[in-house]
Amino acid sequence: MKAVIFNKKGSPEKLIYCEVDKPVPNDNEVLIKVHAVAANAADYRSMKMGIIPKRKIFGADIAGSVEFVGKNITNYKPGDEVMGDLSSFGFGGFAEYVTAPEKALIIKPAKILFEEGATLPMAASTALQALRDKGIIQKGQKVLIIGSSGGVGTFAVQLAKYFDAEVTGVCSSKNVQQTSSLGADYVIDYTKENFTNSDMRYNLILAINGNYPLSAYKKVLTPNGIYVMIGGSLSQIFKSLLFGWLMSFGSKKMRSLSAKANKNDLEFLAKLLEEGKIKPVIDQRYSLDKTADAMSYLSEGHSHGKVVIIME
Ligand SMILES: NC(=O)c1ccc[n+]([C@@H]2O[C@H](COP(=O)([O-])OP(=O)(O)OC[C@H]3O[C@@H](n4cnc5c(N)ncnc54)[C@H](OP(=O)(O)O)[C@@H]3O)[C@@H](O)[C@H]2O)c1
Questions:
Q1: pLDDT value at position 208?
Q2: What does the alpha-carbon distance between residue 34 and residue 32 come to, in Å, rounded to a whole number?
Q3: How far is the CA of 282 from the centre of ligand 1 (A)?
Q4: b/e string for 31-56 if b means 16 or more Cβ within 10 A?
Q5: Can you list the domains of the chain with their CATH numbers?
Q6: Quick one: three-class SS letters along 197-243?
Q7: For position 153, what pLDDT does the model report?
Q8: Tens digits of residue pLDDT in 37-77
Q9: Cβ < 6 Å from ligand 1: which residues?
Q10: Which regions in the chain score pLDDT beneath 70?
C-alpha cells in the first residue's frame, strides 16, 4: 500500500510518500481502508520531539471503511464506515490502510462525509473536554476563546454556543468574519486590540493559541472564573504547567487540559454534526502524496480550520 513514512527526526519535509507492507490486523483489531485523515498539532509536535510511532506512520484522526476484522471483533464487520482517534493506538493514518482496536472506533453516521468525520476526533473532543469537563461551562456565561480560528477553536466557538454561552473569539483580521459566522457574539482582532487591556470580564477562558502572561488571563477572569490552558506557543504551555497552580490560589482557577480519546464524546460530537448543530471548517485538502506539504502548512500555525488528507 501507499503510506507516508517519517524518515528522520526533524521537520515535516522528512515525510516520505512510498510503498510499504499493508498492516495485518491481529485477532483484536480491525483493518480499515482510510478514506480521509486529518492532520493535527499532535502529529508535528510528536515529530519534532522525536516521539515516532512504531510503524513510523503519523496520522491519528481517521475515517474509513472496515475491510477485515480479527476473530475476536464483535462490533464491526467488513463494509462498516468508521471513524476514530488512533493517537493512543500507534497512529498510522497517513496510509491507505491502518489497523485499530475496536475501542478506538465508532460507526460514522451515513450523513457525515469521510472528510468531515476525520475532522472531529482530536480537535472537537479537545474543545468539548475543555469547555465541559475543565471549564464546567454554564448557560449564559461569558466565554473567551483565544485562537478561535484554528482546528480546535472553530469547534470551541460552535460548542460554546451549543452550551448557550455568550462567546467572544480572539483571532487575526483575516479570520474575524469566519469566527462571527460560526456564531461568536463578539470577535476581538488580536492585531488591533489586546483583550488583556479590556474592562470585560469572562467566566471561562480557553487559551487555545497565543502567548500572554498568566497574570493577564487572571485579570480578565470573573471572581470565580476558570482559565483552561489547551495550547499555543511552547512557552505559553510551560508557563501554564509550571506556574498555573500558583495562580489558582483564591477563587479563580487555572487548569490545563490533556484531552483523551473518548468514544462517548466522539459519538456525541458525531451526532451534533449529523444534526447540523456543529459543522467542520476544512481549510485545506491534500492528497496522500502531498502529506509533507500539509504538515508544513499546519505547523506554520495559521490554518483557519482543519487540514485533511483525502485518499484517491
Ligand atoms: N491540551 C490538549 O489536549 C490539546 C489537544 C489538541 C490540541 N492542542 C493544542 O492546541 C493548539 C491549537 O491546536 P489547533 O489544532 O487548533 O491548531 P491550528 O489549527 O494550527 O491553529 C491555528 C490557528 O491559531 C490561530 N492563532 C495563531 N496565533 C494566534 C494568537 N496569537 N492569537 C489567537 N489566535 C492565534 C491562527 O490564526 P491566525 O492565522 O489568525 O493567527 C490559526 O487560525 C496547539 O498548540 C495544539 O498543540 C492541545
A1: 96
A2: 6
A3: 15
A4: bbbbbbbbbbbbbbebbeeeeebebb
A5: 2-108+281-310 (3.90.180.10), 123-256 (3.40.50.720)
A6: HCCCCEEEEEECCCCCCHHHHHHCEEEEEEEEECCCCHHHHHHHHHH
A7: 98
A8: 999 999 988 888 888 999 999 999 999 999 999 999 999 99
A9: 40-41, 45, 122-123, 126, 146-147, 149-153, 170-172, 175, 190, 208-210, 230-232, 257-259, 298, 301-304
A10: 9-13, 246-247, 249
pLDDT in tens, 224-248: 999 999 988 777 777 777 777 766 7
C-alpha cell read off for 272: 451534533
Q: How far is the CA of 84 from the centre of ligand 1 (A)?
A: 21
The DSSP code for 57 is: -
Q: Euclidean distance between the first and final Cα of the chain, in Å?
A: 13
Residue nearest to atom 10 of ligand 1 (CA): 231
Kindly report the average pLDDT of the chain as a whole number: 93
Contact 167, 184 (CB under 8 A): yes
